[in-house]
Amino acid sequence: MKRVIISFLAVISICITTSQPVFAHVLKTDGTIGAILHIQPDDNPKSGAPTTYELAFKDTNYQFSIQNCNCTVTIRQNDKTLDTGPLIASSAHVSKNRYTFQNPGVYTLNVSGQPTQPNDFAPFSLTYTIRVEAGRGSKNLDSFPLTLAIGMALMIGLIMLAAYAMDLGEKEDNHKKE
User: Fold this and answer.
1) What span, in angstroms and rounded, lies between the C-alpha atoms of 81 and 46?
2) Staple 124 to which of 4, 30, 52, 89, CB 3.0 to 4.6 Å?
3) Do residues 46 and 112 share a domain?
4) Left, alpha or beta for 79 (phi > 0: left; psi -120 to 50: alpha)?
5) What DSSP string runs through 73-118?
6) The model's pTM
């Protein structure tokens, strides 16, 4: 019985310590140009709240820079264009733009670019899918932290129950020996 409980606790410990959060850093490429999308806050955009999205570009030919690009970013939902504008460079290879998603749902972010000088780099188009969760003003009020708290409380309860069962098992073994 003791081995079963120890094995159970080991499995729970491994599950808790090896679980990793999911990040939305997504690399898309078109030809020699690629970009990683990073979304603030915490790669988890909420409707009704300002979202900053960064694109970190990489060119395998080392010719691309945002300053030498007629780059445009377009945000769509259900084939309806919601916003279009230029990328705002924060460095030669990183852009930092802001947008407030009005509703929860799935959005498409498309970045396209043409060189300002011929033959600087090949034109490109990169498309990302963004899932926006309901913000604080909606009916779905941050259910993840509540779910996490409930899960942690259940895990602590199971660990305490297992410790109690181990203690009880040891007491039974001691009584049998006497």
Assistant:
1) 19
2) 30
3) yes
4) left
5) EEEEETTEEEEEEE--BSSSSEEEEEEE--SSEEEEEEEEEEESST
6) 0.64
For residues 47 and 114, membership in a common domain is answered with yes
Helices (H) and strands (E) in the chain, counts: 2, 8
- CA-nearest of 117, 127, 177, 165 to 7 is 165
Residue type, 16: I
- Max mean pLDDT among 25-29, 59-63, 143-147, 156-160 falls in 59-63
Burial letters 117-127, b for 16+ CB under 10 A, else e? eeeebbebebe
Question: In which order are the strands placed within the sheet that holds 69-77?
Answer: 80-86, 69-77, 105-115, 124-132
Q: What is the tally of structural domains in the chain?
A: 2
Residue whose C-alpha is closest to residue 89's, from 75, 107, 68, 110: 68
Alpha-carbon span 67 to 121, nearest angstrom: 12
**Same domain for 151 and 111:** no
Structure tokens at 167: 């203690």
- Report pLDDT digits (tens) over 50-79: 999 999 999 999 999 999 999 999 999 998
